[in-house]
Amino acid sequence: MRVLVIGATGYVGTRLVPRLLEEDHAVRCLVRSPERLARTGFADRVEVVRGSVPDPVATGAACRGADAVVHLVHSMDGPDFADRDRAAARAVATAAAAGGVRRIVYLGGLQPAGAADGGDTSAHLGSRHEVGEILLAGPVPTAVLQAGIVVGRGSASFEMIRHLAETVFGGPPVLPLPDQAWNRVQPIAVDDVLHWITACLGLAPEVDRAFDVGGPEALSYVELLRGYAREAGLARALTVPVPVAAPRLGARAVEALTPVDRALAGPLLESMAYDLVCRESDLSSLVGDPPGGPTPYREAVRRALAEDGSAGPAATDPAGSGPPALTGRHVEEVEAPAEVLWSVVAGLGGDEGWHTVPGAWELRQRLDGLVGGVGLRRGRPARLEPGAPLDWWRVEEVEPGSALALRAETRLPGVARLRMTVEPTGTGTSRYTQTVTFRPRGLAGRVYWYAQKPGHDLVFGVMARMIAFAAERRATQPTRPNGAAQPAGTR
């Protein structure tokens, strides 16, 4: 089939398009930013139409000649998202009918009981229901898939669960949560979502309705946090319900503790006021279940965590996807050749020191020794290689001439890493990039990071600048008879 995907650069879209291509469908993508599509890795295998969905000209051109349309656009990045989603749905319904499309598949959201009959719901869920109704009212047969929380790395809902669990479990032994956290939802693995979408492309023309899709379990939001915590090896906490519901305040807290933007977190938190569970499973009898059956929640979490270990975040994943990490970076343009700059980086530690504020790291390491850490262990290995100790660091990676990665062995409420890279920028010039990454362990880890951040920025900023200065000084020093430059001698 020739399938038009609207929302191909979003979380589900970037995973759906490769699957459609693997199944030998011809794929066309309507996108506002071809540049963003280029980062997906499949842009050269699809037909690209540039434009936004509400634009009738662009949407009409994209639908013309397509057999099916998969509509994945959700505008939750501002207060007028419902208006924009409504306009997009009408444009798609009109263009699909005019373009000869034979099937529309729309990914919406599970609805609270009674919402279809005018019952209470959130703005977010109400908008999803309205979009489905607009598409179903059109002449093109439509399958509206109503799904709950999608579990997979990069999903906004899953990343919110991940970062909240990583923050609060391993923090206080008693965790107060709003009583809405005991409402139930039916999560679904992203692989199962992809199965249902692609399977619906082959539905008979007379099938024109909404379907509930979900995993095999209906769980409370507390159980989602606990399930993630168990799979991630986090400590357990006693959860206590608090009869307070403040979505706006909660959205600010989520924004502070997770990479999910407040404009997105707010509508998601409002939906917690309702039980969101499947009331039927009719689609299974029409197209069959995913291979092996619907995926249990903890298995879906395991797959997401395994994806963390197998590769870094995809280029199209939202910022902050993957394990929580806090970073600090310093970049210096250096008036010295890359090989000279590398000689300074490779010589750090031991008697040479770390080129930073005098006494700062010595004090930090003496304090570490008092609490049972490695303390002021000084010295360099005979050879700089992975696994070798370097003062209070452990070498994790060495790319001679270009990169050195270290892991701190001090006592910290988390894991700290330091990566230093060297790259040539011209004749006799180079660039030094110094990145500190801290993966906090529980709430204590985040408190530690932000409490010491001003001093951290000073110490590491001085270090970056002084490493650059040492390289520039070394590049201008006279060489010894054997051709080596005199040592910089800076601690």
TrEMBL record:
Region (Disordered) location: 306-327
Entries under CDD domains matching the protein: SRPBCC
Domain of life: Bacteria
Pfam family, any one: NAD_binding_10
UniProt-listed PANTHER family: NAD(P)-BINDING DOMAIN-CONTAINING PROTEIN-RELATED, PROTEIN YEEZ
Annotated NAD(P)-binding domain residues: 7-111
UniProt protein name: SDR family oxidoreductase
Gene3D superfamilies: 3.30.530.20, NAD(P)-binding Rossmann-like Domain
InterPro entries with a match to the protein in the record: DUF2867, NAD(P)-bd_dom, NAD(P)-bd_dom_sf, NAD(P)-dependent_oxidoreduct, START-like_dom_sf
